[in-house]
Amino acid sequence: MFPQNFLWGGATAANQIEGAYNVDGKGLSIQDVMPDGLQTPPTEGPTDDNLKLEAIDFYHRYAEDIALFGEMGFKTFRFSIAWSRIFPRGDEDEPNEEGLRFYDRVLDELEKYGIEPLVTLSHYETPLAIAREYGGWSNREVINFFEKYCRTVFERYKGRVHYWLTFNEINSVLHFPFFGGLEGTPEEVGPQKLYQAVHHELVGSARVTKIAHEIDPNNKVGCMIIAVPRYPLTPNPQDALKALDKSHDDLAFGDIHCRGYYPGYYLRKLKNLGVELDITEQDRDDLTNTVDFVSFSYYMSVCETADPAKDTAGQGNIVGGVPNPTLVASEWGWQIDPVGLRIIMNEYWDRWQKPLFIVENGLGAKDKLVDGPEGPTVEDDYRIDYLNQHLVQVGEAVEDGVEVLGYTTWGCIDLVSASTAQMSKRYGFIYVDRDDDGSGTLDRYKKKSFDWYKEVIATNGESLTK
Ligand code: BG6
């Protein structure tokens, strides 16, 4: 069912696991001023209630954590490099050696267990100085800062990292501009500035794709987008058109990364919004450096309606849409749809004919630590069920002929949530003793799903229950 060499593993992001936010020369990133995730506007500076400042202290416990990933049989581990560890402000000439050394150590551990690194270059972690002093990605100069940072890590980790992702969920900046270092809501920022920032990110992504290939022809670079099947709420063609229009907002990012130019529907949208992009000849040339594969996160599907009376956008997520009456939702209102994963995989493959990599999928749930025969554990059958159902659909997509490189569950070890900045929204196979108020020992415990996933990997998916 699953291809040989399928890259099974787990995924994380620096700001959600590392902690050590001001250690060994690290500069502040936008996450250090987002104590409530997306729930409230960013603060002036770091505040004590921000769980990400310490997170799960992966910075000091990486060896123990990677040993557990090794024990599960991970073939790959997705993590991000914190840009502000390497260039604390983003605009320096020289990198911070201590920051580079940390990732050397992480790579050493991964090599011990034969785990292939999958590295995100920018996972909602723009250095704060770039946001506050340069206007974030709305400033063209930031492309050069990003290029310098990427060149530095491509050269440093040459031959040790082969899979790179440029921007995590690059389409999310349209919903939450501060991810790109722009202060304010999309309405406050306004379409002209927002889409210019998006353009700069797209050029940056393409430019570093080219550089990655030049530095090491064995490098494989992927874009990373939020995948959301958008179904029409009713058979009314107006609902179908709305679903198409909203899907285009996501698909544009894949189209540009895979084709190397802006699609017509996107240009029309910009025109309707009154946006006039500053695009140079160099930009157009850069954009032609297309990706090797398409990676995406998948958590939910939504419905779209053209009827304003039924449009209750924003059901606990940043992707909009309205609830699907046939589906149930997680405790955080994310609607669970395993078949939607098969559908979107087919759609992406049909459209782009590039290998896919599912780099995030999982269930955020409240876990209860209980006594087990070998010590504290969590009986997380709900998580096993969720992952099993989704993986069965990945298998179906493989049977449909979709080429898939691998699958990494989100938050393979409990981490701080991105949207709500909570510890209690847990995704892991490994429980971390830390609570929303910051208390806890940070000790790690294996959940029931730990052994389950280990078996799935060992059998290359044969142990999944259809
Ligand atoms: C994705 C992000 O949006 O979803 C992750 O890439 C994030 O950083 C994940 O953690 C799950 O979202 P949340 O809000 O439950 O942490």
TrEMBL record:
Keywords carried by this UniProt record: Glycosidase, Hydrolase
PROSITE patterns in the cross-refs: GLYCOSYL_HYDROL_F1_1, GLYCOSYL_HYDROL_F1_2
Single biological process term from Gene Ontology: carbohydrate catabolic process
Active site positions: 360 (nucleophile)
Pfam families reported in the protein's UniProt record: Glyco_hydro_1
Family statement drawn from the similarity comment of this UniProt entry: Belongs to the glycosyl hydrolase 1 family.
Protein name from the UniProt record: Glycoside hydrolase family 1 protein
Organism: Corynebacterium phoceense
Organism classification: Bacteria, Bacillati, Actinomycetota, Actinomycetes, Mycobacteriales
